[in-house]
From TrEMBL:
SUPFAM superfamilies: Thioesterase/thiol ester dehydrase-isomerase. CDD domains: PaaI_thioesterase. This is Acyl-coenzyme A thioesterase THEM4. InterPro entries: HotDog_dom_sf, THEM4/THEM5_acyl-CoA_thioest, Thioestr_dom. Its EC number is 3.1.2.2.
Length: 152
């Protein structure tokens, strides 16, 4: 089975509510390569409803873009450096500095959501990632992230 990007986060940095393996209450989002892009799949529990039970609330949508975006920034950087995650070198870790979300239409509840990341550019410690979240009937939200690589 292919390891997810988050599987390479050290345990001490794996407490994120959205994607940390060490947070028992968290969502444990998992991100992977899909060609030149990145992908994550997630089906929110019914308790994450928006104004009506059929729709997912916006914070959950932003959370999925957030965690997938930073994981993708790390993956894009490893690839640009011709490195592999878990190669024993200095770990490449990112946090979100800026996340813009456009909610294009309601996100449906009860279906698997697909989150995609595409590299826009890398400039030193700054990585811009274009994000999208798709339900069963097209793109529901788009995101633009600036992720900053932490100094090691
Ligand atoms: C713990 C391990 C987890 C590692 C494992 C990952 C866990 C999962 C994370 C999930 C995603 C999240 O929720 S992360 C949690 C939410 N995010 C945060 O809490 C981050 C809080 N902010 C910060 O800690 C800081 O502001 C940083 C690290 C982002 C940046 O601080 P810094 O390292 O001192 O760098 P700084 O010089 O200020 O900025 C570097 C460059 O980025 C630019 N820059 C900085 N912020 C912005 C911004 N909002 N919009 C535009 N540009 C910006 C600066 O102008 C500069 O450009 P130039 O002058 O170089 O051109």
């Amino acid at each position: 089975m292919t390891a997810a990007f988050q599987d390479f986060y050290p345990d001490e940095f794996s407490h994120c509510y959205g994607c940390g393996s060490q947070n028992p209450q968290g969502h444990h989002l998992k991100s992977y390569w899909d060609g030149e892009e990145t992908i994550a799949r997630f089906t929110p529990d019914a308790k994450y409803s928006g104004g009506v039970p059929e729709h997912v609330y916006g914070g959950m949508v932003a959370s999925l873009l957030d965690c997938h975006g930073t994981a993708s920034a790390a993956a894009f950087t490893y690839r640009a450096l011709n490195r592999e995650m878990g190669d024993g070198g200095d770990p490449v870790r990112f946090v979100t500095a800026s996340l813009k979300v456009d909610f294009l239409k309601p996100t449906p509840m009860g279906v698997e959501l697909v989150v995609r990341g595409k590299l826009r550019s890398i400039d030193g410690r700054k990585v811009w990632v274009d994000l999208s979240l798709t339900g069963n009937d097209g793109i529901c939200a788009k995101g633009e992230m600036l992720a900053i690589r932490l100094r090691t």
